[in-house]
């Protein structure tokens, strides 16, 4: 587990910085506008959202190493060619890089589900969420520092090398994606989607979407608030406080003796985010975002834990891919939604819009998770699965 988290951290840190690196390359290297840079970022994000379920399904069917070798090769070609591509070709390369991005995050989550017992899983997913927060704190900052000393093209090459190295490391480790008692899941056949993509899973995806929508909106609201106060240079400090408190929250949640419902965690995250708009300068904003940070990693880890519990081993790759797609969609839509609220009101309205979006998703997840469809007569495959589950409970 330690080796996997260490190697995947390298790749995840590089992946979190790709948008920043491409933005700086388009603006500084190609001397184009930020709107053009946004087009490249949108192409990459679209590819990431579409590629999650696709790569997950390929992992379920073809195995981990095959998918990693394909994606590592694609990343090598894409990032090596970025500095020599014209803008239109760069859009296509960014989409391809996103579509076939090395799936380190989803692979790490699948491996955690396979390598831990039920009692260890919540703490392990909390640690994985902490790893994600650290990657978001380190990756973009390293890119900005490196871009100040070398050309943006060299930074892009270095980022691609880190992604390739991380993906290769995960392939060499080849972590198990199924527990010992799940080893025959592939030979038993893939269960139909209607058996696992039900109301409970849709509730999880709604919470995943709402969480990243809120977080993306909070980042924009922080910048807007400090820009109005003439203190935009302090935004990095506020974001750092947000990240550090999220790490603390993840560690605390992982140490608890019992878990909390994911919709409750998201609801609390939304409630503590709304009052952050009352802060009007950077010291008070640092204090105001502490509550948001403390609930961020626990909410993300609860979502990952729920996905692992609700999906059979034979489709766990596709399920974690759907989770990644829901979170990518939230990141992509959060900023525009909050931006409209800021333009229509004041910067404080950005925190309110982000918090209300989180509360809406939490309410949706709560209502869906409390609904129970009427039982269906089991098909032969489902009947066998039910008998195995009952036998396990009896034992």
From TrEMBL:
This is MFS transporter. Keywords: Membrane, Transmembrane, Transmembrane helix. PANTHER family: MAJOR FACILITATOR SUPERFAMILY (MFS) PROFILE DOMAIN-CONTAINING PROTEIN (PTHR23542:SF1), PTHR23542. It comes from the Bacteria. The chain crosses the membrane at residues 9-28, 34-55, 67-85, 202-226, 232-253, 260-276, 348-368. Residues 384-395 have a biased composition (Basic and acidic residues). SUPFAM superfamilies: MFS general substrate transporter. Residues 370-395 are annotated as: Disordered. InterPro entries: MFS, MFS_trans_sf. It comes from Streptomyces lonegramiae. Pfam families: MFS_1 (PF07690).
